């Protein structure tokens, strides 16, 4: 069974959205079977009639008959809800689609882990996040799949008036991963934050595609990515923010910083603003470099070894994303996180 044989319009490397992303090895692989990866929670299923900008959503939907599970959060959560997606068989194509609905006035946190220690398996995961009026959700996704495995993660956000959605995306695995985040902000006074850390090693390959559209007044989006790349790892980060004529007094910020820790590491970063009004605040920027040599020398001059100085500066760079998380219990989870606990 090959994804390339599906009767759908698959992403092509030559398309602007997917430029620099090569799907051929994934789409042409002959999987032994397809399975739906179940959730540990007892959830109802509904039909998925959503309209998505990215083609990536259609891949998982084509396998699951356009259906998805529904997780409804109707009261405040004292601690984060943890969802673990563990691949169980090699050479298997998994799908699981989920709608997370946070009811009006509710505050919640969700952590979702994608992990594997197998060979040549893939998970196609669609996520729709609905945050109702005056509600708040911190959503953290951790990708930690092994080499030769793949994850296609597609996330669409829908926010009502005065809602808050903060997404943190951590890429730790060695496999092939493509993330898509889209948010059409059609409501008033919405806050949307997306923070990401690509900590890639070996031959890990991770791509992130972000599209945010401001269609209503006084909304705020802040997209912030850090890339820490070693060995032959490769990252693509494409951020597109659109402020339409009805998005008056919006704030749209983008930032992408990369540290290349080897000569073979590769980063392709493309922040992009598309603005149709003057009444707004907006900024975007990207930097690429190595660890600051002056800072390294400064630490060594105070008796800290070269290796320890290197670790301290790299940790400070990477922790700037973790420090954006508000929920202290999520921070504790990240500090204690070990892949071995979930495989």
Labels describing this entry:
343 residues; 19 strands; single chain; 5 helices; 9-stranded parallel beta sheet; mainly beta; 10-stranded mixed beta sheet
Provide the helix percentage.
10-25%
| Structural class determined from secondary elements | mainly beta
Alpha-carbon distance between the two ends: 26 Å
Q: Total helix count? A: 5
Radius of gyration: 20 Å
Which strand-content bin applies to the residues? over 45%
H/E element order: HEEHEEEEEEEEEEEEEEEEEHHH
Q: Give a quick account of the main beta sheet: strands, pairing sense, barrel closure.
A: 10 strands, mixed
- Silhouette: globular
- What's the pLDDT, averaged over the residues? 94
Query: Could you list the spans in which at least 5 consecutive residues all have pLDDT below 50?
Result: none
By DSSP, the count of extended strands is 19
Task: Explain what you see.
- By secondary structure, this protein is mainly beta.
- The protein is built from 5 helices and 19 strands.
- The strands form 2 sheets. Strands 1, 2, 3, 5, 7, 9, 11, 13, 15 and 17 form a 10-stranded mixed sheet that branches. Strands 4, 6, 8, 10, 12, 14, 16, 18 and 19 form a 9-stranded parallel sheet that branches.
- It is globular.
- The relative contact order is 0.11.
- The mean pLDDT is 94.
Summarize this, please?
With 343 residues, the protein is mainly β.
């Amino acid at each position: 069974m090959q994804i390339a044989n599906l009767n759908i319009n698959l992403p092509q490397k030559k398309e602007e959205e997917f430029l620099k992303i090569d799907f051929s090895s994934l789409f042409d692989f002959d999987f032994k079977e397809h399975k739906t990866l179940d959730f540990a929670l007892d959830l109802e299923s509904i039909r998925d009639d959503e309209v998505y900008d990215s083609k990536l959503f259609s891949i998982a939907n084509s396998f699951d008959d356009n259906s998805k599970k529904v997780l409804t959060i109707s009261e405040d959560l004292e601690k984060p809800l943890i969802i673990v997606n563990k691949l169980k068989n090699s050479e298997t194509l998994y799908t699981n689609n989920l709608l997370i609905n946070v009811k009006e006035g509710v505050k919640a946190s969700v952590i979702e882990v994608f992990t594997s220690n197998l060979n040549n398996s893939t998970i196609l995961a669609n996520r729709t996040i609905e945050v109702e009026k005056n509600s708040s959700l911190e959503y953290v996704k951790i990708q930690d799949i092994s080499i030769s495995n793949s994850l296609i993660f597609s996330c669409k956000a829908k926010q009502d008036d005065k809602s808050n959605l903060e997404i943190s995306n951590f890429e730790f695995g060695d496999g092939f991963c493509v993330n898509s985040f889209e948010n059409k902000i059609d409501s008033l006074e919405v806050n949307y934050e997306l923070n990401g850390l690509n900590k890639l090693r070996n031959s890990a390959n991770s791509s992130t595609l972000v599209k945010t559209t401001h269609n209503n007044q006084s909304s705020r989006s802040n997209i912030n990515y850090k890339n820490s790349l070693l060995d032959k790892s490769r990252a693509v980060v494409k951020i597109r923010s659109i402020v339409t004529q009805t998005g008056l007094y919006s704030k749209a910020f983008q930032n992408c910083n990369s540290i290349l820790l080897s000569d073979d590491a590769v980063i392709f970063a493309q922040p992009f603003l598309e603005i149709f009004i003057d009444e707004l605040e907006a900024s975007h920027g990207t930097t690429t470099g190595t660890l600051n040599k002056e800072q390294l020398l400064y630490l060594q001059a105070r008796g800290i070894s070269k290796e320890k100085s290197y670790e301290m500066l790299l940790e400070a760079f990477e922790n700037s994303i973790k420090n954006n998380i508000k929920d202290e219990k999520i921070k504790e989870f990240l500090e204690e996180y070990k892949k071995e606990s979930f495989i």
